[in-house]
Amino acid sequence: MKKEIIIKHLGYVLLLNGLFLLISFLISLFLGESSTIALLFSGLICAIFGVFPLIFVERTEHVNFGEGLSIVVFGWLLTCVVGMLPYIMWGGEFTLANAWFESVSGFTTTGATVLVEIESLPKGILFWRSSTHWIGGVGIILFVMLVLPQSKGQRLSVYNAEISSLSKMNFRFEARRIVRILAVVYLSLTLLETVALMLFGMSFFDAINHSFATIATGGFSTKNLSVAAYDSVAIEVIIMVFMLLSGMHFGLIYGTVMLKKENIFTSSLAKTFLLVMLAGVALVTAKLYLAGTYDFWTSLRFASFQVISLGTTTGFATEDSAHWPIFTQVVLIYFTIQCGMTGSTSGGLKFDRVYIFFQSIGKQVKLLKHPQGIFISKVDGKVIDDKLEQQTLVFIVLYIVVFFTSTALLTAMDLDGMTAFSASIATIGNVGPGFEKVSSLGNFSTIPDLGKYVLSINMLLGRLEIFNVIALIMLKRH
Questions:
Q1: Full 3-state SS string of the chain
Q2: I want to staple 167 with a disulfide (CB 3.0 to 4.6 A). Which of 4, 107, 342, 431 is the partner?
Q3: Span 212-254, pLDDT tens digits
Q4: CA distance linking residue 448 with residue 324, whole number of Å
């Protein structure tokens, strides 16, 4: 494994962060804010350390899978370290633990926050905070792949390390074209939502920040009360539509717009995903109404937003679900675990894996009846080979082990069971809010510093999908 190859690519990662820090600095400078110096120094650090590898490290035409994997994992870690610099330099509520937590939460698009007074932050810091979502949403490594004049071997190695096998199923193009498609869909959705939000009353600054957070399925808002601060049905509907789209496979969105054969309307997986989301909305609405929590239309309004928000790992809120009936919380926890489709910006287990899991159960039941039979699993007409099916089942087990382990660690720090359990699920799923102390209109400020570091590891494992971290450790050992 050639370290210079990894270092050169990490330089590009730093430069990308530096670009957004520059934009944040210009906003802060224009408004004469207290964060100007912090953003300037952070941007200069990224620029200096990002340029050095480009000058002194020779270009190479080949990157193997191990090097690609190292670029992905270390690229994410380096990005999170860089992301905390403006927070620490500016101060305020940002202790070392808080700055690290907020940075990791931003780049992994988790959206869990330690901030109590979000609206007191300078706009330059707020923009940087939202930018971490947008950079991390489609993957900082994929952004780098888009702009680099790399060889096919380089692109393929990094691409295979960054994107799971399930995510590639609805694409039939080479790596670089897939990255371009992702970028086009990502940019288009961001632009469309920004315009729509402005048409219904949001300022340009709030609209672009909320669009960054929606399309990245992140959830950072510029308001203490999240989307509830606007108290606008129109704004909520717009955000719900774009949350749903961002939780679906970008290849299918592209296929729908371009009138391709593989699109949202022909995909049984996409249609099942939408039906499951609809069922979740119906169940929560019915319980809220029958329990007398709200009238029917208010129940539908809040249930729709919360189910879609958690079911796509966005984490925006219009109401504090911590005070809802326990049945609705159980339903919401399920969606916090399941989340959106692969090939989207959503985190969590991914709906595709849940879909394959239930198909595997069906296959095992058939084998009990017909031990000599041969049965296969399919997703949208494509056969799921045994290797991918086994990998999916192992991933689900590892996922459960991680969030139960982190739950145990948090309860050892004297956090109550629901807070510890929901915080663990919400962070490994990159969802954001949980229940009790970390509810949808609450924050993670009361979590002990050690707990914040534990949950930060959860967020990174969730974003890197566990296997990449294990694979890198195994490569280092050999």
A1: CCHHHHHHHHHHHHHHHHHHHHHHHHHHHHHCCCCHHHHHHHHHHHHHHHHHHHHHCCCCCCCCHHHHHHHHHHHHHHHHHHHCHHHHHHCCCCCHHHHHHHHHHHHCCCCCCCCCCHHHCCHHHHHHHHHHHHHHHCCHHHHHHHHCCCCHHHHHHHHHHHCCCHHHHHCCCCHHHHHHHHHHHHHHHHHHHHHHHHHCCCCHHHHHHHHHHHHCCCCCCCCCCHHHHCCCHHHHHHHHHHHHHHCCCHHHHHHHHCCCCCCCCCCHHHHHHHHHHHHHHHHHHHHHHHCCCCCHHHHHHHHHHHHHHHHCCCCCCCCCHHHCCHHHHHHHHHHHHHCCCCCCCCCCCCHHHHHHHHHHHHHHHHHHHCCCCCCCEEECCEEECHHHHHHHHHHHHHHHHHHHHHHHHHHHCCCCHHHHHHHHHHHHCCCCCCCHHHCCCCCCCCCCHHHHHHHHHHHHHHHHCCHHHHHHHHHHHC
A2: 342
A3: 999 999 999 999 999 999 999 999 999 999 999 999 988 889 8
A4: 26
What Cα–Cα distance (Å) separates residue 87 from each residue in 13, 168, 236, 294?
A: 19, 36, 30, 40
Measure the CA–CA gap between 373 and 360, rounded to whole angstroms. Answer: 14
Q: Are 189 and 246 in contact (CB under 8 A)?
A: yes
Q: Decide if pLDDT at 290 tops 80.
A: yes
How do residues 363-375 score in pLDDT, each as one tens digit? 888 888 888 777 7
Q: How many C-beta atoms surround the C-beta of residue 244 within 10 A?
A: 18
Distance between CA 170 and CA 355 in Å, rounded? 15
Per-residue pLDDT at 157 exceeds 50: no
Instruction: Return the pLDDT at 28.
Output: 97
**Residue 165 is encoded by which pair of tokens?**
């096998």
pLDDT band at 17 (very low <50, low <70, confident <90, very high): very high
- Rounded Cα distance between 228 and 236, Å, is 9
Q: What is the pLDDT of residue 1?
A: 64
Strand partners, 377: 384
What's residue 365's pLDDT?
A: 85
Q: pTM of the full predicted structure?
A: 0.90
Chain-centre distance for alpha carbon 411: 25
| Whole-number average pLDDT of the chain | 86
